[in-house]
What does this fold into?
Amino acid sequence: MTRPVATLRTTTTASIAAMIAASIIALGAGAGCLPTLAAQSAAPPGRAARLDEDVTFWGTKRYRLELSQGVALAISCHDGGPCEKLVATSDNPAIAEVRAASLTALQPAGYHGNQQSASAVVVVGKAPGTTTIHLRSKTGGRDVPVAVVAPPIATTTTAAAR
Amino acid sequence: MHQATLVGQCAADDVACSRRHPQAPIAIGTRFHPDVSTELAGNTTPNLILDSAVPEVIAVEDGALVARKPGTSAILISTDDGSVVDFVHVWVAPVTKITLARRDGDRVASAIALAVGEDVTLAPALWNGAQRLSGDGDVQWTASAPAPIAILRDGSADRRRLRARTPGKTTISVALGDVATAVDVEVVP
It folds into this structure.
């Protein structure tokens, strides 16, 4: 009776070890290829400018961006340091325009004390609607869905409508 | 991104003008003449270009911001190649009230009395409720009786110098679009 149990334990332990190893490899591969993004500016009062991330066990699965019309948001790109050769495009610049940004702030790059200028873009909400912006760097890319929302109705108009 | 500043083009000692900083919304129908500079370590300010995110709200014409309708728009400050150095969200609001102030910023709250030969410089301030607005507008100055006072331009778009010419009374009206204010002026010998 004890021998089958021992075999089962051995098999289970091996399976778990294999799963963990596979997870680490997959996590490492995913994290190594895809850059991470971070908002570098704030929304103006009463307007939207938020970069959200959908995080899973494996890391950041994707990013989502919501902007009000007329609002700009600076986003920096990292992949072990400032993204190298960052190129950004928009599927519909009439809804969300994306432009290269010049940030002079130095950020750590690599693990040997080097620094590089931050790599960033500015996304501008031009008109209400949805589109996707594509960020491509030397090590990978991100496709970020963007929702541009109309500005809120002025308070006086809202009050009059009540 | 804290790399550039955008302020109004004002003389250092011009109190009324120095208040027209971009922290105030720009009044609809007026123009804001910005003075842009950057603080980039190891760099002087590069040649910069202004763009508006929503030109229907704020247009950029010949380097000036032209307020067209209520709302907000990011003003992008870019280099020649289109790389954004910084941006500022600028608000536009309608004018609901006009007040007058002397050049030193002192608000005109009652009638003005002048002796013949004296003059006073007045500048209009534009408001939306309690919020002061910025921008140079095509403000119209008129006198109910033109004889006692000469309304002189002094190079500013909206400011005027009132010179007392002959004894008498008049009312100076100052209007921007449908919004107006008035001040009584008495000229004594």
Notes: DSSP finds one helix and 19 strands in chain B. Chain B touches chain A through 24 residues (CB under 8 Å).
